[in-house]
Design brief:
By secondary structure, the chain is an alpha+beta fold. It is built from nine helices and four strands, in the order E-H-E-H-E-E-H-H-H-H-H-H-H. The protein has a four-stranded mixed beta sheet, covered by helices on one side. The longest helix is centred in the middle third of the chain and has 34 residues, at about 90-125. The protein is globular. It starts with a strand and ends with a helix.
Length: about 220
């Protein structure tokens, strides 16, 4: 088996890469990194990712880190008819995919990640959720979802009427957000809700969800 992914399915960043691998049907090995024992900061993993984070990808002599870069590599290497999630054969469609990937990275995820961390991770670590931070973040999430709701009234998916990495890249954070009490806000955005139902019904996403903790 060629590709190795180092990380844990608890990480939304690892999950993003796994969803891409499943989408294109590539074979891979998930090598679990033990965060509890600090394995991610050990010399072996720092050789894979000098920032001591996950995921890292090894494919022969190639080593990559950063989940979005890894995702693009996987999709470029294993792209086949029907699975061109980058749309690189069409410069305009490719630009739209990139635009919404940037939106996910700089608008969607930064607004939603404090909620998932405070509601899910902090209690798991024995701490108390910072409700003030959650409430402030939820207001930011609403502003983002208002933009998505309006946009999805004009196209089925984010970059157009085709499924792309722009959509798939939202899956991990959206999945964890949907497990928080704040998920009730989605009732205000029916088009976003329908898009999310479509996204999580994909076989690749279902497969990765089955690998995640609590499943």
């Amino acid at each position: 088996m060629g590709i190795k992914i180092y990380g844990s399915t608890l990480s939304p960043y690892v999950v993003r890469v796994l969803a891409c691998l499943e989408e294109v049907g590539a074979e891979y090995e998930l090598v679990v990194i033990d965060f509890a024992n600090g394995e991610h900061k050990g010399p072996a993993h720092l050789a894979r990712n000098p920032f001591g984070q996950i995921p890292a990808l090894q494919d022969g002599n190639l080593m990559l880190f950063e989940s979005r870069a890894i995702s693009k590599y996987v999709l470029r290497k294993y792209s086949k008819p029907g699975t061109d999630l980058l749309r690189e054969s069409n410069i305009e469609e490719s630009a739209l995919v990139d635009m919404w990937l940037e939106t996910e990275a700089h608008q969607f995820s930064p607004s939603i990640s404090p909620i998932t961390y405070q509601c899910l991770i902090v209690p798991m670590l024995g701490g108390v959720c910072d409700q003030k931070l959650v409430d402030e973040s939820l207001e930011k999430v609403k502003k983002v979802l208002e933009v998505y709701e309006a946009h999805l009234s004009r196209s089925k998916y984010l970059a157009g009427d085709f499924f792309s990495l722009a959509d798939l890249s939202h899956f991990p954070m959206f999945y964890y957000f949907s497990a928080t009490p704040c998920a009730s806000v989605l009732s205000l955005y029916p088009r976003v809700g329908a898009w999310w139902e479509d996204l999580k019904s994909r076989p690749s996403v279902k497969k990765v969800i089955s690998m995640m903790p609590g499943q």
